[in-house]
Amino acid sequence: MLTDPYGDEQLVELYDGDNEPRDDHAYYRALADRVAAATAADRGGATTIVDLGCGTGLLTRALAAVPGRRVIGVDPSPTMLGFARRQPGADAVTWIDGDASALAADGQADLVISSGNAMMHVEDLPATLTRLAAALRPGGVISFESRNPAVRAWEQWTTGVTERETPFGPLREWMEVTAVDQGRVTFDAYNVFEDGRQEVYTSVLFFRDAEQLAGALEASGFGEIELLGGWHDEPLTAESRLIVVRARTEPR
Ligand SMILES: C[S@@+](CC[C@H](N)C(=O)[O-])C[C@H]1O[C@@H](n2cnc3c(N)ncnc32)[C@H](O)[C@@H]1O
Questions:
Q1: To which CATH superfamily is domain 9-148+208-249 assigned?
Q2: A biological process (GO) annotation for this entry (predicted)?
């Protein structure tokens, strides 16, 4: 069985510094603003937003800092979620340990997002999307990003050893891709701390092309599917690093 690739307390402490928000957070925040404005116009009342695979919760807490929102952060990693729960502003979020199956199928959410390629950890995408569709209201919006397999990013992932300073002392790191099988990419991330402690985490990521993503969305009850090539609605091409997905549950 795979261990949690986000299971080390010290590496989780380093996560936000290593993954500084860029256009991705701006995109998801602007989308939340648009959905909240439409929700207020249509129905009044609070907007409910689910952040699946919320990790350390940096984006989740930013979304919850806007008044008039109910924000739910879901993540299966107890270490990531434990860190998220300890951060300033965490009280404004409802944190749920688990994956999409832990969400109530109550058709209440206005928006589901999943950032940081978290959806690539999901093996059975239609099953997860079906859960998310059940959590969303009719006409609710889903958005997430997924790396474009055409760019074959994994070919750059096997690296030599690098060393850097961290608050926990020098850290030596490297990665090794161990298997590539039809978009299923397995890699080991090595982390060696100053005292010799070595943490090796095996991750599996599922690269899906536009056809696979659209097929999974359609099979799960989503329509109005948009597959874009970046955070500014660029058209999707073979060179696009990311596929940015937006869709809606069918209106009743
Ligand atoms: C690269 S992190 C992204 C975290 C955060 N969304 C961000 O943008 O920084 C991927 C996250 O996906 C979570 N994850 C792994 N498998 C998952 C699953 N089946 N469902 C939901 N989240 C999952 C991990 O625990 C991890 O916190």
A1: Vaccinia Virus protein VP39 (3.40.50.150)
A2: methylation
